[in-house]
Amino acid sequence: MEIALYVIILIMGTVFGSFLTLATYRIPLGQDIVHTHSYCPKCNNKLGFFEMIPVLSYIFLKGKCKKCHEKINIRYPIIEILTGIAFVILALGLRINIYNVFTIKGIEFLLGVLFIVFLFLIAGIDIEHFVIHKGVLIYGIVISLLNIIYQYSFFSNYNLYKVIIYLIAIAIFTILGTFRIKKKAKNDYVYSLIILCLIINFFTLEIGTILTIILALLIISIKSLINKILNKGKKYNNKIPIAFYICISNAIVWITIFLSQIGV
Ligand SMILES: [Zn+2]
What we know:
mainly alpha, 8 helices, globular, binds zinc ion
C-alpha cells in the first residue's frame, strides 16, 4: 500500500512537472496557463491526450512533434522526472504514509508542493529570460502567508514577531521595486532577489536560507570562473541567472536535510 501511495505521488509530480514546463514557457509571454490547450510551439498543432502524458509521451513520440517533426526539448521530460522525484523526496522527508496523508501531515506536504512549484517557476523563467517574474513572486508571498497561518495554528512556539518583521521587509522591497525612482532593470532584479530570499526564509528558516545563499554564491563563483577560462580574450554573455542558482541551491539544501532525516 505504501508503495502505491508513493507511485501516485511520483505520477502526480510528473504531471505537475509537465504543467511547470508549460508555465515557464507561457508566463513570460503573458499567455493563459490554465485554459489554452497545449500545442506545439512551432506548428501550433494541438496535443492529443496521449501526447500530454508526462515523460512517456516523449519516449513514444521519440522526442519529436507528431505533425511537424520538430524536436521536443529534452529539458521537458527531464523537468518532469525531476519534479516527480522532488515530490517523492518531500513525501519521504515528511514521512507521509497512508495513515497520515489526510491529516495535518497532508497539509504540510501540500505546502511543500506549492513551494516546489514556486522554486521551479522562478528558476525556469530566470534561466530562460533573466527575469524574476513579478506574478510568481506574488504567488510566493501568498503561499508564505498560508505557511505562516499553518505554522501559527499548529505550533505554539511559532515566533510571530519575527514573521512580522520579515513581512514588513517584503513590503518595503515590493514598494521599492514598484515605485522605483530611476527605472533601472538591475535594481529591480536585486529587489526581487531579496524578496525571493525572504520567501525562501519562510519555508527553510534562517539556517536553511544562509546555507542556500552560501551555496549559490559558491556555484556562481565556480561557474563564472569556468566561463572566464573557457572564453579567455573573447566577448561572451556574462549575465548570470542568480535567482536560478538560488532556487537550485535551496533545493539541494532541502534534499540534504530530508535525506539525512530518513537516514540515507
Ligand atoms: Zn509541431
